[in-house]
Design brief:
It is built from seven helices and two strands; from the N terminus they run αααααββαα. It is mainly alpha-helical. The chain has one domain. A two-stranded antiparallel ribbon has the order 1-2. Strand 1 (about 110) and strand 2 form a beta hairpin. It is globular and about 55 Å long.
């Protein structure tokens, strides 16, 4: 599981670095987040298929790899409970979700309770991203189970 966490973490860091030059491609830069989702899904699928890693383990690895975004997101979502400013946590959450930045122009310019939609996506993305490789592992598990001969 440790290597899975490391691989997911390094993949996310690579996408953070790769997003900056890709933004110069204009509208084509919006393909990068979809490519990221595809790679995450395939990682989960292949980990289950080749190594037999269960979907729940892949999900746990996904959440561990997203802790740099989950912890600030938790503080931001519970901001009324904290007696201090959360600007640092907002900055960390936005930096951590840089791979989603090319999608922000595609979002409607909506505001919910004085919070822009893109910021809500930024804060909640770290809670959702681990579900993608887990979905790939779950699909692989179902296919194995379906085509496995009964004894």
């Amino acid at each position: 599981m440790r290597t899975m966490v490391r691989n997911l973490f390094l993949l996310h860091l690579l996408l953070i670095i790769l997003t900056l030059p890709v933004l110069y491609l204009g509208r084509f830069s919006s393909c990068l987040p979809f490519l990221y989702v595809l790679v995450l899904f395939l990682m989960g699928l292949l980990r289950n298929r080749t190594m037999g890693i269960p979907p729940l383990t892949v999900l746990a690895a996904g959440y561990l790899s997203q802790l740099p975004g989950i912890i600030p997101g938790f503080f931001i979502l519970t901001e009324d409970l904290w007696p201090f400013g959360l600007e640092v946590f907002e900055f960390i959450a936005q930096i951590w979700q840089t791979p989603l930045y090319p999608l922000y122009p595609l979002l409607p310019h909506a505001i919910y309770h004085d919070i822009p939609l893109y910021f809500l996506v930024t804060v909640t993305a770290s809670f959702i991203i681990p579900l993608i490789p887990a979905a790939g592992a779950w699909l692989s598990y179902l296919v194995k189970k379906m085509y496995q001969p009964d004894p």
